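Known limitations

Structure tokens in this collection are predictions and should be treated as such. Users comparing against experimental data should check residue numbering before alignment. To illustrate the layout, the record for Methyl-branched lipid omega-hydroxylase Cyp124 is reproduced below. The input appears on top and the generated tokens appear beneath it.
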Amino acid sequence: MTAVAAGIDLLSSKSFADGHPVDQYRWLRENAPVYRHAEPDGPGFWAVTGYDQVRQVSKQPDVFSSAEGGIMINDFPAEELAFFRTMILVMDPPKHSFYRRLVSGLFTPKRAELWRDSIGDTVRAILDEVCERGECDLVEDIAGKLPSYVIAELLGIPRADGERLYELTEVMHSAPDTVSDEQRFAAMREITGYAVEVRSDKLANPADDLASRLVTAEVDGRTLDEHEFTSFFLLLVNAGGDTTRNLIGGATLSLLARPAELARLHADLPGMLPAAVEELLRFQSPVIYMRRTALADVELAGQRISAGDKVAVYYGAANRDPSAFEAPEELRLDRTPNEHVAFGAGGPHFCLGSHFGRIEAGEMMGQLLTRFPDLELTGAPTWLASNFISGPTHVPVRFTPTAPLGA
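Generated tokens:
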């Protein structure tokens, strides 16, 4: 029998009003790492919070399917689910394997590293926009602009368009109790409509950018058709934008709340930064969960899961599992080893853009802390009303004004 706790609610956005509900996670890991969670407008789902169990589900796509019911706990209408299944995030092998192979060469560590200087230049320009003011909103003026600008540059589209796409992803990732399905699908349709225009432009005017490469990417004589391209575009905008913004915003809040650990980082920024980025990824865990659907009856941590059941793996909970991390609720910027699951827990759906994400986070945190060493909060932060993505929406800060560095 699964233990039941009255205080457990992983569906309400209120549970994530100031970050991950670590107390709920702790109870679940200790009492029911595979927990039968009620669902007011649905059949319920299994919430998986233990590190080993999250990895087990992630590595068995033949048992726990992404395609069968999608990756969100709430069930979409058949037409919408059919569209989402054109995204590799919502595919199972062998179909997933083919599409991943089609684009994986564009996301290798070597390919990502070629963009480091450009990403660093973008970070410098963003900080130049606010450095003379001495105050700003860390999310709107800094963290939110970075992935918007980087995605725009990667895809070869105007920065203003990148900012609009970022606004639309916020709508898509908001919890069902704050945004209607109609609003969510309208945002999705605006993004995919824009993607069709981008594809047409890149076919006519190819350039040295990711969108042009996606248009021409080929495996075994196959390239992406219009529908497939729009699906990849939607995935890039969602996965490459919101998560990076939330990582940087949440990571900065975590550091400001721990001045001793922040001082250690300041004292050896070049030496500590790579490990610090990994620890901040673990601690922040921007993606809250991914859903899978059981394709057969299976037992997990003593619980009998039936074919057709929804199964949600919670990365933030797994990243705080004491069986995998010593003192997991402490932020230790030099933590090694650090086998976190912020980019996924192994298996076919490990994040394609993880190398880009690490570079963006490292460049931003390194320059931000160097140029604004006395950064401090001036008010209470607010958080995204989402049970799917975790991160702040507003973080008012101040710092000593400085002159722009320029190009």
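For this record: The mean pLDDT is 91. The CA atoms of residues 38 and 44 lie 5 Å apart. Please report discrepancies through the issue tracker.
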